[in-house]
């Protein structure tokens, strides 16, 4: 299957609630690579690479609100250049 990469920007109460850790757990379980990173504007950037179906599953999870203590107001996503990631990391 062809690999795809997306960059998603998640807005709402998504910092300080375990959002990156939960996203890493979800993405790793789906076999995806990439990263989750807090941005200065209070959002979280998620780059995910893998099979289209798995990337879509992660994107759906993000849009459904992520972990229980988070509040997702909106998710914007766009295709991203394929990265050379070996796993899914939390970036600081």
How is this structure best described in words?
The protein is globular, with a radius of gyration of 12 Å. The longest helix is centred in the middle third of the chain and has 12 residues, at 52-63. It is built from two helices and five strands, in the order βαββαββ. It has a five-stranded mixed sheet, with helices on one face. It has a single domain, classed as Alpha-Beta Plaits. The model has no long low-confidence stretch (mean pLDDT 96). It has 92 residues and is an alpha+beta fold. Keywords: Hydrolase. The active site is at residues 20, 38. Pfam families: Acylphosphatase. It catalyses: an acyl phosphate + H2O = a carboxylate + phosphate + H(+).
Key structural traits:
about 90 residues; alpha+beta; Alpha-Beta Plaits; EC 3.6.1.7; Acylphosphatase; acylphosphatase activity; Acylphosphatase-like_dom_sf; hydrolase
